[in-house]
Amino acid sequence: MRQTRKAVLVLEDGTVFEGKSFGYEESVAGEVVFNTAMTGYPESLTDPSYEGQILVTTYPILGNYGVPPRREKNDVSEYYESEHIHCKAIVAQDYSWDHSHWQADRSLADWLKEEKIPGIYGVDTRALTKHLREHGSMLGKILVDGASDVPYYDPNAENLVAKVSCRNVEVHGEGQKTVVLVDCGVKHNIIRCLTRRGVKVIRVPWDYDFTSIPYDGLFISNGPGNPDMVVKTVENIKKAIAIGRPICGICMGNQLLSKAAGAGTYKLRYGHRSHNQPVRRAGTDKCYITSQNHGFAVDDTTLPQDWEPLFINMNDGTNEGIRHKTKPFFSAQFHPEASSGPKDTEFLFDEFINML
User: Fold this and answer.
1) Is 337 a catalytic residue?
2) Is 49 annotated as contributing to ligand binding?
3) Pick the catalytic residue: 193, 251, 275, 294?
4) Active site residue 166
5) b/e sequence 260-286, b meaning 16+ C-beta within 10 Å
6) Neighbouring-strand partners of residue 171
7) N or C of the chain: less Cβ packing under 10 Å?
8) Shortest CA distance to 155 belongs to which of 137, 130, 181?
9) What are the pLDDT digits (tens) for 5-14?
10) Is residue 351 flagged as an active site residue?
């Protein structure tokens, strides 16, 4: 019989969910959020936008297809979205100790232990998700039997973008056109989607003054946490708006472009984290199924007159992108690179490249 340690998830309102440990056996704290995707835990765990968060998976089984190998292709990870796991921990209803997939080279449990990330299963994730939907995302901590207690930790109180951004300028791909990619916590598939389209990508840190180098277009990546913390990037985007070359943003990039334009943002009750968020392109009847991972949104009512919504969430009416009415600036709150998830909106990369 398999021996597992008892573990509990304790929310800041005092609610306790009991389970068993299957990852690194250490207590940890963070913001508890849920994702309704059925697949894609390697991509989600390595998504920098989950920095500081305890991820709850609503799909009842976790680990059944193991973990793909760690290897690079064209200077970025071939299967992951960054170099390491960013989630503080992961929570599941059931964990499959026997995995099966032709690409798998180890189990999820082994990977979590390797990167010192706790995981617990046996939790009633349906009840937990309903609790978070009713009360909103909240702080929590996982306490593993025999490990020390830890204080609650609020990741939104610090600049997480500065924590996950690259430290030095990097160059990816080659081509006649040059795109500056501001790394606010970029997913590697954004780099793949750009280089596949034949452009040279200059990846710069979040606070780098990219206006000092020549470029044909600016791309602002996704990233974790509160956009109000990312003041330096907003200042540089304002300079780019004045320069007038094409600009595109994804997720955090949508929020930062909006702030540079003069709009405001706010925290969502429990965020959008799934592979099935329906969005409509403003002014049309065209709808798309999108992959999303964010806890903040742009306030449409604060957009200046020269700007307008580009996409609208069909579930709750929140902003899903903006565009300038006359200049080549636009952004999406969802993930058109969608790794993992539907790729219905990858055409937005083509629209950006055609602007260069």
Assistant:
1) yes
2) yes
3) 251
4) no
5) bbebebeeeebbbbbbebebbbbeeee
6) 202
7) N
8) 137
9) 999 999 999 9
10) no
